[in-house]
Structure formats: C-alpha cells, structure tokens
Amino acid sequence: MRSIFALLASFLLALPACAQEAEPSVLIAYFTWAENTVIEDEAASLASALAHYDNMGDSRSGVDATSSASLLMPGNTAMMASHIQRLTGGELFSIRVEQPYPSNYDDCLDRAANELDDNARPALSTHVENMEDYDIVFLGMPNWWYSCPMAVLTFVEEYDFSGKTVIPFVAHGTGGISGSVRDMSASLPQDCTVLAPIGVYRPEIPTCGPAVEEWLKTLDLPFALNDSFEVTE
Ligand SMILES: Cc1cc2nc3c(=O)[nH]c(=O)nc-3n(C[C@H](O)[C@H](O)[C@H](O)COP(=O)(O)O)c2cc1C
Fold first, then answer.
1. How much is the mean pLDDT over the chain?
2. pLDDT tens per residue across span 219-233
3. What separation in Å is there between the alpha carbon of 60 and the centre of ligand 1?
4. In ligand 1, which atom is closest to the CA atom of 109?
5. What Gene Ontology molecular function terms does this protein carry (predicted)?
6. Would residue 71 count as lying in a domain?
7. Cα 133 to Cα 119: distance, rounded to the nearest angstrom
8. Which residues are registered as beta bridge partners of 137?
C-alpha cells in the first residue's frame, strides 16, 4: 500500500515538469559553394571571381575578393549559419553534392545555369538522419542565377517538411534575394510555415552578426536567443 502512495506522490511531483512545453528542436541546414568545390589553383579561382565582379560593375565585392569570392572556407552562407547557430543553439548541417562544382567562377556559373535550365536535382552526399526530430529548420542558400542552387531543391524534396517551420537565409551579390526563397518554397508542402528571410550582400558578410541577430528578434521564435552580438562585440 505504501508503495502505491510513493508511486502516486512521485507522479504528482513530476507533473509540473511534464506540463512544461519542450523547447523546439532547431536545425540549421545550408548550402555554400566553398564546401561544394575542390580548389586546384586558388589564385586563379580568386582572379576569376574578381574578373566577374569587374564585368558586372560590382566594385564593392571586388574590394575584398578574398572574402567576397566565397571560394575559401567559410563560405558566405556558412558564416550566416554559424551566427544563427551561436544565437539559437541549433544543429548545423552542410548540404553537399556528390559532384563538386568547379572552383573557377565562370565554370561554376555555367554548370549552375545548365542545372537550372534542366530543372536538375544534383545528388547529395550528406543526409539528415533524424529530420523528424526538428520542428524549426533554418535553410541557407546563396542566390544562384536569381534562384537557389538546385541542390537546395534536392534537399527540400528529400524530407517531409509537413508541419515544420522553415526560416530561409540568403547570401547574395547585387541581385538581392531575387527568386531564391520563392523557388525553394515552391518545393515545400502547403502545411509548412515559411517565415520572413534575411538576405546579406556579400561584402557585408564579415560584419553581419548584429543584422542576423536583429532579424532573429523579429521572428518571434518560441525560445530565447543566446548571448547577444551587441554585448560581446
Ligand atoms: C553559380 C553562381 C551564380 C550566382 N548568381 C547570382 C545571382 O543571380 N544574383 C546574385 O546576386 N548573386 C549571384 N551569385 C553570387 C552569390 O550569391 C554570392 O557570392 C553569395 O554570397 C555566395 O554565397 P556562398 O559563399 O555561400 O556560396 C552567384 C554565384 C555563383 C557561384
């Protein structure tokens, strides 16, 4: 009899903890060129990016080709992802293709253009084992040809996003977010909630921490953010 009372008491004591809402699980998945290429000749690859910016009249990116080219780790989208990771405590996941992209800017542009024309779904070499565990998925991508890399669509279509919240973030050149978020969202199911994205222009990537934090604060996330950039930087 006494053991039944003890059992009942421990059940009642545990109730308040059970009644508390569990914190949602957060995944931060991103695609970035630097983690999807193999660099053979770093100087030549950087020069090809610089020549491209020159051709486009994108002088702000040309000033610091080494970081803006986003060829060297960490890539621009990866840097945004690491800020989000620091502030939310989510799990980072790098979307990687089986066949790396060229490290020459123009060659990469050509392959990306062909994939877009073909509505291709490049095969991925990385996979999320437990997607069902995540309620909130931050999804990062560069603007490629006014859209998203087709590998992002391969990723989105691989999993069931029903009932999840997807929060896009985009690294871009002079074109802004363009159609990247729109095209990615078209591959999501109707009952997936897509929140307002942030876009960061490539020369602003090295200093974008506070902007990322301000954006996260506008999203009304169901958990508190970690330490602030305003305090620590
Ligand atoms: C294949 C390719 C296509 C691109 N197309 C565009 C574009 O249409 N508009 C734009 O603003 N930037 C474009 N960019 C620039 C990238 O969006 C920008 O450099 C971004 O910061 C790269 O992010 P990452 O380092 O994460 O790959 C393109 C870059 C590449 C490599």
1. 88
2. 999 999 997 876 444
3. 14
4. 1
5. FMN binding; oxidoreductase activity, acting on NAD(P)H
6. yes
7. 30
8. 27, 166
CA distance 61 to 43: 17
Indicate yes or no: pTM above 0.70: yes
Q: How many helices (H) and strands (E) are present in the chain, helices listed first?
A: 10, 6
Give me the number of domains the chain comprises: 1
- Taking the alpha carbons at both ends of the chain, their separation in whole angstroms is 61
Minimum CA distance residue for ligand 1 atom 12: 173
Q: Which domain holds residue 207?
A: 22-221
Give the nearest ligand 1 atom to 108 CA: 1
Residue 9 included in any domain: no
Q: Which residues line ligand 1 (CB under 6 A)?
A: 32-34, 70, 75-77, 108-109, 112, 142-146, 171-175, 178, 202
Query: Which CATH number do you get for residue 136?
Result: 3.40.50.360
- Backbone φ, ψ for residue 90 (5° rounding): -70, 175
Ligand 1 atom with the shortest distance to the CA of 33: 27
Query: Is the backbone peptide bond immediately before 100 cis, with ω within 30 degrees of 0?
Result: no
Contact 71, 103 (CB under 8 A): yes
Instruction: Specify if 228 maps to a domain.
Output: no
Structure tokens at 176: 């802004």
- Confirm whether 145 is domain-assigned: yes
Nearest CA residue ID for atom 7, ligand 1? 145
- Span 147-197, pLDDT tens digits: 999 999 999 999 999 999 999 999 999 999 999 999 999 999 999 999 999
Neighbouring-strand partners of residue 37 = 101
